[in-house]
Amino acid sequence: MTSADLASLPLDGQLAEVLAACGRNRERDLADLFRLLAQPSISAQGIGVDECSELVRDLLERSGFAARIMATPGAPVVYGERCNAPGQPTLLIYGHYDVQPADPLEAWDSPPFEPTIRDGRIWARGVADNKGQFVANVLGARAWLETVGELPINVKVVVEGEEESGSPNFPAFVAANRDLLAADLVYVSDGQVFETHQPIVEFGNRGMLYIELVAHGPSRDLHSGNFGGVAPNPAWTLVHLLATMFSPDGEILVPGVLDAVRPVTPELRTALDAIPLDEAAALADIGLTEKAAPKDLPYYDRLMVRPTMNIAGFTSGYGGAGSKTVLPAEARVKMDLRLVPNQDPAVIYDQIRAHVAAHAPGVEILHHGAMEPVAVALDSPLAAPVRRAVEVGFGVAPVDVPMVGGSLPSAVWPKELGVPAIVVPYGNADQANHSPNENMITERFYAGIRTSAALLGAMVGQNRQI
Amino acid sequence: MTSADLASLPLDGQLAEVLAACGRNRERDLADLFRLLAQPSISAQGIGVDECSELVRDLLERSGFAARIMATPGAPVVYGERCNAPGQPTLLIYGHYDVQPADPLEAWDSPPFEPTIRDGRIWARGVADNKGQFVANVLGARAWLETVGELPINVKVVVEGEEESGSPNFPAFVAANRDLLAADLVYVSDGQVFETHQPIVEFGNRGMLYIELVAHGPSRDLHSGNFGGVAPNPAWTLVHLLATMFSPDGEILVPGVLDAVRPVTPELRTALDAIPLDEAAALADIGLTEKAAPKDLPYYDRLMVRPTMNIAGFTSGYGGAGSKTVLPAEARVKMDLRLVPNQDPAVIYDQIRAHVAAHAPGVEILHHGAMEPVAVALDSPLAAPVRRAVEVGFGVAPVDVPMVGGSLPSAVWPKELGVPAIVVPYGNADQANHSPNENMITERFYAGIRTSAALLGAMVGQNRQI
């Protein structure tokens, strides 16, 4: 946004000064980010995680936070706080300093851990997911401190190092540190906006239940000529079981699973219809011309209103080239169900277990993980300052996204701290997180800094209203 | 069998002499077999095939046959003949000199290509499949020659080198050499008997149709959170298609596929019921207590009367440990159908293709191979001398097996030569062909030599009766 745009917004005098300071500190802010980007921190491979946690602590300290590294059974958590605003609300910023592995290295146009600017973008592993996003939020607070001398509200920062490995220790960490982390709102910048580049505010995400069904046949793979017709085939067992669980029309058939799905209120309908959509382009990008059944369901209802039952993997017998005449000993199907409010993954699991027991009693069911769906009300009182901050930071009013299709372990915040989390992704649509050539449009990094600075101002006086 | 048993059979005087000679030549016969066993001949890996074909030619020549090596586009065929019995019938002996790969080598108790005798068995890769079996047939003829000075009938021997690779060139070889191979009966020793050790005479085998169904979804694997509900899942497409093809009750549902299945005649019923069966033991050996649906179908009807529709492989999405949330781009199922007389694999393929086009028009169907089912009438005139020869060779009357569950390319004999093939397996039930520690009970090798010697005698005067 130009300074003319900024001037047209009715900014508090102090915030205007802070934003101006952000503009003057662009080179230093970028150097602070590059220092983190140059440090590999691959949790899946245990590479550089401790070193990176120290860099994050240093950044927090240099930004005026009292910071420390806190041990977990896995990678350490970095915690910082500056709570010198008595009577004002507390904002908890969440991020993660670990990154995905960078391979295949040969697919990168520049080395993943040598950050560089090219074509108006920062290129580095982890720049979007998540270093460039949480660092922007820290630097927005620093701008307040350096300009005004103090933060206008209380700010806590928690940065974990195992998000890319499924955050195995983080929920327990939060539960064990409820008082330390107590806040009025959890603010998370992660993920990406739509192709339009318009900023968005995310109010929740789908939950998940991940199961595996295992059908057992003979004790070893058999010759299908010598035993075909005699031995039951476990792949057929699963095919017939699965056909009772999900219809060709796209309906989940397991009794009870849909019972708790929240109805679409007029307010939710309006929000869904307001999300930008170029459906033909979205489908073309994944090589499709038609959506899954039922064909007439609106695009975003599929991601935000209806649960899914997805086959993530089906494995049985011979999968190589050509032919092999085997009657397999085993068949396995991995499934994830994306859950919407107010489905409870524990209840859904029991319903599926009962269904499997009734239809294919020999089939084993494994539980590979669950996350509860989370939804923050679109009219939550704390949504207003967030929307206002994004508008100030990006110069464009954001779109409300009631629900993200993916699943995040964000139920930990309402469950353990009693507060919601609102997510504002700073990443561009083509950020290529988890892929080679991960990148972040440089101006989006700076807009993120401005957004978090604006959020601190906008939250003044907004205590405990959720 | 003891010599007392032998004496009790009304043997032709010459045959008695020949069988006595077999008894005197045991050490030399074993050495001849060991020479072939020591030569690796793995067609799948192109190892030692030419060298082995020369050893087979040498054995045939040393046994009194005019032998030569005949080129094919793949491994050579060894052909030998001794046709000095004008007016007498011609027997064509078929075998294969190639063997399965021997890995995993560490699972063998003695090296696979260092034949040895232990516990009354010969241990070596290929001893049962098929070197020990076709060599026995050659040596039975040699005993006639050495004892009487000539063979009582005309004998041709054809030994191919690609059977373990699916005989890709053999049918064309037979078609191109109809006159050379012309015979009254094709005699094959391959495979194994039942656990009872009782000899069997096999009158046919199931055919096969091997297809692959490929369902296409999005153009790449997708994140099931970001796209679940939007993109059609090809694994679900196949599940729903497959459920229309084969019922939970074990019935093939594709229209027309069962139309040509031959009815069970009283004669066939009698033969089926006469086959030895310890069903509980057979099931226990493969870790089962129950047969596939329908449960009340007799055991051998499953292998000899009814066709099967087997899922040999189902592959889609993630098959590793734990969980991965992917919406797969593709799903593949490999299927073999074991066909019975008088099903035609070409007709069945068209019926399945029409069914797939009607139910899942986007699903691709691949044809990976077909073999026609073959059945020789149980009352075929040439069955009598074969049964008689087996009784002489093994000292026990054989059981008729109307059909073998597996599939062999044996339709080539009636189709190209106009004659049937009768199969008499010399291998023991636990021969472990295709596995480590392949073996053949030593006495079964010698019984095989006696059987083929007896067959030459029993066929005298049995011309063109099929």
TrEMBL record, chains A, B:
One of its GO terms (molecular function) is metal ion binding. Keywords: Hydrolase, Metal-binding, Protease. Residues 204-362 form the Peptidase M20 dimerisation domain. GO terms for biological process: proteolysis. The keyword Protease applies. InterPro entries: Cyt/Met_Dipeptidase, Peptidase_M20, Peptidase_M20_dimer. It comes from the Bacteria. It holds the Pfam family M20_dimer. The keyword Hydrolase applies. This is Acetylornithine deacetylase/Succinyl-diaminopimelate desuccinylase and related deacylases. It comes from uncultured Thermomicrobiales bacterium.
